[in-house]
TrEMBL record:
Source domain of life: Bacteria
Protein name: Response regulator receiver protein
GO biological process: phosphorelay signal transduction system
One matching Pfam family: Response_reg
Keyword Acyltransferase assigned: no
SMART domains assigned: REC
Record-linked Gene3D superfamilies: 3.40.50.2300
Length: 120
């Protein structure tokens, strides 16, 4: 059975790139344009979430907090995919419950290596 990964980003081109990278590797992908959209689409089994940090309506950190507060998704790996690489922002992400951090622009094989590691 293929694993399902949700990608959350307000940039359609980034979503598309993440989506294509993951689909080519055999993952099922759910796309969301911001945190609110992601929460609305979180219903069935989701094995991993890849989220941007800076988004309208609900940012990545708020999304992580909301996901971590939901029993069903409490332990789902969440990767921040963002242009932010400041230590303080990373700390905030970690404190909220982020599993890992990938800085944009990302390399497709980097993303797949992380997915593979977290989803075995």
């Amino acid at each position: 059975m293929s694993k399902t990964i949700m990608t959350v980003d307000d940039s359609a081109s980034v979503r598309q790139m993440v989506s294509l990278t993951l689909k080519d590797a055999g993952y099922a992908v759910i796309e969301a344009c911001d945190g609110k959209d992601a929460l609305a689409k979180l219903s069935g089994p989701v094995d991993m979430i890849v989220t941007d940090l800076n988004m309208p309506n609900m940012n990545g950190i708020e999304l992580i907090r909301a996901v971590r507060a939901t029993p069903q998704y409490k332990f789902v790996p969440i990767i921040m995919l963002t242009t932010e690489s400041q230590a303080s922002t990373k700390e905030e992400g970690k404190a909220a419950g982020a599993t890992g951090w990938i800085v944009k622009p990302f390399k497709p094989d980097q993303l797949l290596a992380v997915a593979k590691k977290l989803l075995r």
